[in-house]
C-alpha cells in the first residue's frame, strides 16, 4: 500500500510540475494590485502602441521593456499565444497583447512601469 501511495504522489507531483512549467507567467501581487507576473515575480506590462498579436516595441524600446521571452519547447495554451518579433525572436502574448517587463523594476512585486508615458500598463488577468 505504501508503494501505491508513493507512486500516486509522484505522478501528481509530476503533473503539477509540468503544468507549472508550461505557464509563462502567473497571477501575483504587486505594489499596484493583482497583475500578471513572470516566473521570478516581476510585473508584466502591455504597450498601447502594439497591435493584436504584433509587438511595436523594438530596438531601444525593447532594451528598456524586455519582451517576455519564449523558451524553445514552449507551447501555446488558452489565452497564452506566441508571437514572432521583428528580430525573429518569439514573445509571449496574453489575450493577443504582447507582454514585457521593465528594466527599472529591480525586484519582484514592484510595478513602477505602470502608466509610464501614458502607454504602458500593468498586465492583468
Please explain how this structure is put together.
The chain has 125 residues and is of the alpha+beta class. Strand 5 and strand 6 form a beta hairpin. The chain has 2 helices and 7 strands; from the N terminus they run αβββαββββ. The chain starts with a helix and ends with a strand. The protein has one domain.
Q: Could you give the topology of this structure?
A:
Layout: H1 2-22, E1 25-30, E2 33-38, E3 45-47, H2 60-64, E4 80-84, E5 90-94, E6 97-98, E7 120-122
Antiparallel strand pairs: 1-2, 3-7, 4-5, 5-6
Q: Quickly give the structural class.
A: alpha+beta
Average predicted confidence as pLDDT: 86
Whole-number tally of structural domains: 1
Helix-residue proportion:
10-25%
Strand tally: 7
Fraction of residues in β-strands: 15-25%
Strands side by side in the biggest sheet: 4-5-6
Shape by Cα distribution: globular
Q: How many H/I helical runs?
A: 2
Most strands sheet? 3 strands, antiparallel
Poorly predicted ranges (pLDDT <50, ≥5 residues)? 1-21
Termini separation: 42 Å
Assembly level: single chain
Instruction: Please compute the radius of gyration using only Cα atoms.
Output: 17 Å
Written as H for each helix and E for each strand, in order along the chain, the element string is: HEEEHEEEE
Short précis:
With 125 residues, this protein is an alpha+beta fold. The protein has helices at 2-22, 60-64, and strands at 25-30, 33-38, 45-47, 80-84, 90-94, 97-98, 120-122. It is built from two helices and seven strands.
